[in-house]
Amino acid sequence: MRKAQAQGSGVKVQGRVCIAHHFPGLRYAMGFTLIEVLIAMTLLSIMVVLLFSSLRICAQSWEQGENKIAEVNEVAVVYNFFQRHLSSAIPLWDDFTARDGGYAASRSGTARDDGNAAATENKDKTFSFQGKKKSLQFVSVFPASVGRAGMQLFSIQQQQQDKEQVIKVTLTPFFPVSEGEEWHQEEAVLLRHVSGFTLAYFGAADDDVSKNSWQDEWLEKDVQPKLVKININTTNGVFWPEMIIELKVAGAETGVNAASLEGGN
């Protein structure tokens, strides 16, 4: 009995050897060795690490690209603002100090019938363009498509807001409002995270009108400068190129008065 079983087992072993010899691929279908499993797991781990590293690099590149696009857009918005409004500044005469809800120079126009009207007007009026090293005031026009259409007084200066330095723009209608009404001023932040904001003006010097030069201030003049140079620095390390804006109407006295325009408005 036992002899028959041993002979049967021998036949089975010999059969397996013959099958494995003639069909070697069936040997792997029977299972994997520990070394093969370890090698496969190692290769899989390496592939996963490489995959996640590639994804992390792609995410960082995408974020850096978006930040760069935002920085470029911010510079473009500020440049377009000055290029659109400052370049088309209108040289006008008026007193831009609020007194009793109106412009003093506009009201002073009622005294022009007097013989000393010209002297009174010259004393009260102020030229629209007033530039300092860190602030600027000028008159420009919004297109009809904007809600604040018409002439607006732009006041631009560096201020502190929410514990940071910003460049703020204040818009005031150029002409006085009707009696009993109030000015509708509007303030907007043009740029945040400002560490430096300086202005310079190119035009004729006071001592020599035939000689043009860069000046830190443009005050008490009867003409607009030819060029305005704007330098901006920010705390986030973004490079801001120097902006030089050419004024379309500059270097010549116009003698336009606000009251005369108001009558035709």
Write up this protein.
The chain is of the alpha+beta class. The protein has 2 domains: 2-65, no CATH class; 71-264, no CATH class. Helix content is 35%, strand content 28%. It contains 5 helices and 13 strands. It has helices spanning 2-22, 34-86, 104-107, 117-124, 258-264, and strands spanning 93-94, 98-99, 102-103, 126-127, 130-131, 135-142, 150-161, 164-173, 186-191, 194-204, 212-215, 227-234, 243-246. The protein has a 5-stranded antiparallel beta sheet, covered by helices on one side. Strand 5 (130-131) and strand 6 (135-142) form a beta hairpin. It starts with a helix and ends with a helix. The model is unreliable at 98-120 and 254-265 (pLDDT under 50).
Please report which band the strand proportion falls in: under 5%, 5-15%, 15-25%, 25-35%, 35-45% or over 45%.
25-35%
Radius of gyration: 39 Å
The count of strands amounts to: 13
Which overall shape is indicated by the principal axes computed on the Cα atoms?
A: elongated
Number of domains: 2
| First-last Cα distance | 126 Å
Mean pLDDT: 75
Count up the helices: 5
Task: Order the strands across the largest sheet as they lie in space.
Answer: 5-6-7-8-9
> Which parts are unreliable, with pLDDT below 50 for 5 consecutive residues or more?
98-120, 254-265
Main β-sheet description: 5 strands, antiparallel
